[in-house]
């Protein structure tokens, strides 16, 4: 076995694996002379919405902007709360404030790392104000407990925006994540399951009125060119990224199958070594944006793996409510965020990307065996 360093993620590998088709897409893009909201974006939006199982897809500049735009389309007021988790990429929470509403942070179910419906129910029972919307995050590629969350949303008249930045292609009971809520937001950051070669994002929805509003908001609030009917922004999916994403979308299911095969090998190799391994849920396909171990001595394990040339990452080292920009000023649900804080201390993401060689997977497992028995 080689001893070259193993990367935790390698978006460059996805270019090398699809070079011929990506180069052809780029050539087509340059030849078209259409560089903003041209045919590539229009076709990608249609294909991606169809893939997710929604009627409308709106391409935007990033996953963060997808969340901002989705929230803005709901026309929330400054006293409206949006319930979400603290154990997520900061973008989920940042977007709520950028859209002019207030985050309300709810603890996670520690087994699946996603919004705990029981904690959400307690928040609805004693809300700090109107909870107008909920953003469940399908973290690491596994569905949040949507049945319970959607039921609570219906009961309390709240809208649901799925944060699908880490769950492209994942299924729940045969239906794609992103087609359950009122709106769903995707990031195409290069390491995502559907990754571009720069920033990008999209919103999907079945609501024609919300889709129209988001199309206007993403481009200065224009309904016709140069006339703003809404106070909008500029966040368009780049035409070049759309051309490349059309290639990557055709690869998404195969890429996810590779991630699942790697996860299966990790499961088999790591069972019984004393690490908390990712759970599976009946009826839900986990697409393994990340394969996350749970271990009390996380920092020591990360250092020992680094010494053996195995790259890892921590998603995320600090829950949002403990980060300097948010500490002490964001609303927290009843019961606090103890599980989110514990997760931040214990999670470790192993190397995971579709092109990760089998040899490297074996080396990661061997290193973890050596560390846990040594
Ligand atoms: C859960 C989650 N939400 C939102 C985002 C924001 O996406 P972007 O980086 O494209 O703005 C990300 C990715 O960073 C994410 O992982």
**Strand order of the biggest β-sheet:** 1-11-10-7-6-2-3-15
CATH superfamily of the largest domain: Type I PLP-dependent aspartate aminotransferase-like (Major domain)
Radius of gyration: 21 Å
Compute the average pLDDT: 97
Q: Give the termini separation.
A: 20 Å
Tell me, what's the shape?
A: globular
**How many separate helices?**
12
Small-molecule binders? pyridoxal-5'-phosphate
Supply the CATH class of the largest domain.
Answer: Alpha Beta
Key descriptive features of the protein:
374 residues; Aspartate Aminotransferase, domain 2; globular; single chain; two-stranded antiparallel sheet; Aspartate Aminotransferase, domain 1
Characterise the protein shown here.
The protein starts with 10 loop residues before the first helix and ends with a helix. 51% of the residues are buried. The longest helix has 32 residues, at 239-270. β12 and β13 form a beta hairpin. The strands form 5 sheets. It has an 8-stranded mixed β-sheet, with helices on both faces. A two-stranded antiparallel sheet has the order 4-5. It has 374 residues and is α/β, with parallel strands linked by helices. It has 12 helices and 16 strands. It folds into 2 domains: 12-246, Type I PLP-dependent aspartate aminotransferase-like (Major domain) (Aspartate Aminotransferase, domain 2); 252-373, Aspartate Aminotransferase, domain 1, CATH 3.90.1150. The model has no long low-confidence stretch (mean pLDDT 97). α2 (19-32) packs antiparallel against α9 (239-270) and α3 packs parallel to α9. The protein has helices at residues 11-17, 19-32, 39-52, 63-73, 90-98, 117-125, 146-156, 208-217, 239-270, 298-307, 338-346, 358-373; strands at 56-60, 81-85, 102-106, 108-109, 114-115, 131-134, 159-163, 171-172, 175-176, 183-187, 201-205, 222-224, 227-228, 292-294, 331-332, 347-349. Bound molecules: pyridoxal-5'-phosphate. Pyridoxal-5'-phosphate (PLP) is lined by residues 62-64, 88-89, 91-92, 137, 163, 165-166, 187, 189, 199, 201.
